[in-house]
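tokens incoming
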């Protein structure tokens, strides 16, 4: 009789221990009805991932451990949960328990990543060996947790002292018979990550000589998004990949990839050993998921934002509409003495096509009053101060609407502008979330086109797509008066932030030396703004936020 393992691709909420437990039991019940013998959750499914400093509260860890161990299910479940401390540092473990089983704990995570967005050595005590769930549903199952599998494939920047997959390989060589090895994972999304995950699974299965099942989290938690795409690989390289951006259950038939079943929205992808994964550019799904889950898990139902008639606020409105629904989004046009009529018209057309509420609140009178009250200051000071008054008045209006209506304001800036400080603190940066904060300017245009294609209408119209970007804070102002063309700026920022190119290497690629130095100096000088930016969903290899840690009080023009 074929053995079937249910991989529960879950979207847990951090801290909702009882809610996460109920979801696990609900999914396990569905899996049992579908013929599964055993269920496996994602990493830290009981607490939600990442729980961050909640792990420093002993009662939180103890409660998670107790609830996970006490789950009463139709079929056995391997549950990811924080487990109580046993080491000298008095830190908990990132563990796996057998729900409702007297044996309870199976293993604790060995390899604790401390790079990019990860800081697990701060929270956990590492184990020194992987686990085996013996005789669970009449199966012998090797058990690993997320990073434990990545060292074997050389897919991690850390060079750890141990290789948990190789340890299981040695056990197999010494006579331990395993039916499969599972990996409970919470592997965050970034572009092209799923291909790496597939390589990890194939590498592990080939070395182990039996199926390798990686169950990955889905959904958004704060600035991290998880795409799911749980994967099963067999030793010959055949693989099954679950859909992205959808909760569900992958029923893995250990004997036959063709008999695997997905319960949920979407369809599985079957790959023969010779097949490479064709990765979709799904950044739009990522940012919608990030904003949607941030709102849902925070109890936020309504969004308000400024609509300037420009590309950034247009895409932000599209994302907000997809995330919380058109009836829950309000867009506000706030024209000043410098605003063009086409900006108002473009904003109105966008709102009408999306079906969101559209308001016009001119700032001319507020602007004149501020100018009058601050005339002696503004007439003799830096002209940027007068320009920023307009942005901050708009921030004031948006926040007033948000507070008065129990809504969340969102910031509409993109990664290129945030990278150059081309944004105003307490103005256009005001908001609880920045859905475009990890998208370069040219990606904003690309995602606007994709959104139009998805809905079959040009919500973001041709005028918005083609007019020169402008903050409209001064007569005739254009972004390129202050910044390099976005095609050039984006490439310099991407190569530097994500690929680590220094100034010398950027110049060697053909970029103008003066432009490179100016861009990198601006990037450094404006770090104080990014420390105050709203959380943004991470979609690139390296985003501003947890994975970007730069000094504030520093000499930023050291290249000159």
């Amino acid at each position: 009789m074929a053995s079937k393992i249910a991989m529960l691709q879950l979207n847990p909420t951090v801290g909702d221990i009882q809610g996460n437990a109920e979801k696990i039991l609900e999914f396990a019940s569905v899996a049992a009805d579908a013929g599964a013998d055993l269920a496996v959750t994602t990493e830290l499914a009981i607490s939600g991932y990442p729980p961050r400093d909640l792990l420093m509260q002993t009662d939180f860890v103890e409660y998670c451990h107790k609830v996970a161990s006490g789950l009463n299910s139709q079929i056995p479940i391997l549950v990811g949960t924080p487990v109580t401390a046993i080491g000298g540092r008095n830190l908990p473990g990132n563990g796996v328990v057998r729900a409702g089983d007297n044996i309870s704990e199976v293993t604790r995570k060995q390899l604790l990543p401390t790079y990019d967005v990860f800081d697990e050595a701060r929270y956990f005590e590492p184990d020194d060996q992987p686990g085996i769930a013996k005789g669970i549903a009449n199966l012998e199952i090797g058990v690993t947790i997320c990073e434990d599998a990545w060292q074997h494939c050389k897919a991690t920047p850390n060079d750890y002292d141990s290789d948990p997959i190789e340890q299981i390989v040695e056990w197999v060589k010494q006579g331990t018979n395993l039916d499969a090895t599972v990996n409970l994972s919470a592997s965050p999304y970034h572009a092209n990550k799923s291909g790496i995950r597939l390589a990890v699974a194939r590498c592990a299965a080939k070395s182990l000589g039996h199926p390798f099942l990686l169950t990955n989290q889905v959904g958004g938690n704060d600035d991290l998004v998880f795409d799911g795409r749980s994967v099963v690989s067999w030793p010959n390289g055949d693989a099954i990949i679950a859909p992205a951006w959808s909760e569900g259950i992958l029923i893995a038939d250990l004997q036959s990839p063709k008999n695997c079943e997905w319960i949920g929205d979407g369809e599985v992808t079957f790959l023969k050993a010779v097949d490479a994964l064709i990765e979709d550019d799904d950044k739009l799904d990522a940012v919608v998921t990030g904003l949607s889950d941030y709102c849902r898990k925070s109890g936020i139902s309504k969004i308000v934002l400024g609509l300037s008639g420009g590309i950034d606020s247009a895409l932000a409105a599209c994302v907000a509409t997809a995330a919380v629904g058109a009836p829950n989004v309000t867009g506000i046009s706030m024209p000043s003495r410098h605003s063009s009529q086409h900006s108002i018209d473009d904003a109105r057309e966008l709102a009408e096509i999306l079906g969101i509420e559209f308001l016009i609140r001119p700032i001319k009178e507020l602007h004149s009053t501020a100018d009058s009250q601050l005339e002696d200051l503004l007439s003799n000071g830096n002209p940027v101060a007068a320009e920023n008054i307009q942005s901050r008045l708009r921030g004031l209006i948006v926040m007033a609407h948000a507070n008065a209506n129990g809504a969340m304001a969102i910031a509409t800036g993109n990664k290129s502008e945030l990278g150059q400080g081309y944004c105003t603190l307490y103005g256009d940066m005001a908001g609880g979330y920045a859905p475009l904060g990890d998208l370069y300017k040219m990606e904003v245009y690309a995602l606007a086109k994709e959104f139009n294609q998805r809905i079959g209408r040009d919500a973001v119209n041709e005028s918005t797509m083609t007019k020169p970007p402008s903050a409209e804070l001064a007569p005739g102002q254009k972004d390129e008066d202050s910044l390099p063309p976005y095609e050039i700026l984006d490439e310099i920022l991407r190569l530097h932030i994500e690929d680590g190119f220094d100034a010398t290497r950027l110049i060697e690629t053909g970029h103008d030396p003066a432009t490179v130095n100016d861009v990198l100096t601006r990037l450094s000088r404006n770090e104080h703004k990014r420390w105050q930016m709203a959380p943004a969903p991470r979609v690139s290899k390296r985003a501003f936020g947890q994975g970007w840690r730069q000094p504030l009080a520093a000499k930023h023009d050291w290249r000159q």
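note: The first strand starts at residue 4 and ends at 9.
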